[in-house]
Amino acid sequence: MTNKNPLAREVLILNQNYEPLSVTEVKKAFIISYLGKAQIVETYRGIKLNTVNKSYPVPSIVRLRSYVRISRRRLTPTRKNILKRDGYRCQYCGTKIGPMTVDHIISKTMGGRETWENLVCACVKCNTRKGNRSLKEAHFELIRVPRKPHFFYLLHNIVKTPEPSWRPYLFLDPL
């Protein structure tokens, strides 16, 4: 991040068991650590928050001192989430060119529901060609079988380019 303002940086919040919970701004992370509700795990090297009397390190990762019980946040199969899951790539022809739509593998008229397993990203051309037919009737094959993404999908989409120190906590690197 090239912004010189230390308060403009992001901070990864971990649960007491080091499970990633969310991403927040430095101000909130600093306050909860200052109040003793969280401990600083990693800091941004060479960057300080300066007050009149003291200088504090800018947190990069904080871990909550008390375990927060979270229900697995429901990921709903919205248009935006389906397109992100499929990488904005048509699941029939593989193109990334042109506007993308969401297609029901089993159409609504044939009883198909709006679930992660029944919705895929499709280019306008393929979606129009398939219409209300089944994959077999339309002579289409899926590039990848759609499935519901894991909870960490949210964090990976929130954090486009994570700080290098975050990678092990987001399961992007081996520990």
Brief descriptors of the model:
5 helices, about 180 residues, DNA Binding (I), subunit A, 2 domains, alpha+beta, two-stranded antiparallel sheet, four-stranded mixed beta sheet, about 20% helix
Describe the overall structure.
By secondary structure, the chain is α+β, with helices and mostly antiparallel strands. The protein folds into two domains: 82 residues, no CATH class; 60 residues, DNA Binding (I), subunit A (Orthogonal Bundle). Helices cover 19% and strands 25% of the residues. The protein has five helices and six strands. The chain has a four-stranded mixed beta sheet, with helices on both faces. It has a two-stranded antiparallel ribbon with strand order 5-6.
